Amino acid sequence: MPHPDSTPRLRFRLPATKPHVGAARERVRDAVKDWGIDKDLSASLIQVVSELATNAVIHCQVTEALFQVNVYQVNGSFFLEVSDPDGDHSPKLRNATDEEENGRGLFLVDLLATEWGTRPGRTVGKTVWARFDSMEEVAA
Questions:
Q1: How many CB atoms lie under 10 A from the CB of residue 29?
Q2: Residue 136's pLDDT band (boundaries 50, 70, 90)?
Q3: How far apart, in Å, are the Cα atoms of 45 and each of 29, 75, 89, 131?
Q4: Could you give the CA distance from residue 36 to residue 16 in angstroms, rounded to a whole number?
Q5: Which CATH number fits domain 10-133: 3.30.565.10, 3.40.980.10, 3.30.390.50, 3.40.50.720?
């Protein structure tokens, strides 16, 4: 995960409601397009923010909550964080059965990210983070 003093290239908060998952995806899509990131890395960042924001919306048990998205670039790696105020419910990777409609989001995160994990939020709640290694230098 990025150094705690790192400044995110992108930071925003949205209400933890289903329509705002799409808004989070669009904000990250617009940012990575502006940054000139290659298609594969861009697609991974967009998919993972969608999965992590969906988890924040579905599983957060705090009324009228906001979730926060941060994207950092540190030494050739990108870090994506999604934080919500519910520190009592940490995500866990599991194998969904063929019959289940849900339960594959973290499997996708695990597949697309170099590594991922959870930590307590900087002030409250929890943060789920994912690191993506990039071989290219991206303009600031």
A1: 16
A2: low
A3: 8, 17, 23, 9
A4: 29
A5: 3.30.565.10
User: Would you list the domain boundaries of the chain?
Assistant: 10-133
pTM comes to 0.88
Q: How confident is the model at residue 96 (pLDDT cuts 50, 70, 90)?
A: low
Contacts of 111 by beta carbon, 8 Å cutoff, 6+ apart:
none
Compute the average pLDDT of residues 83-98. 76
Count of other CB atoms within 10 angstroms of residue 128: 23
End-to-end CA distance of the chain: 19
**In which residue are the tokens 């799409």 written?**
22
What's the rounded Cα separation, in Å, for the pair 94 and 92?
A: 6
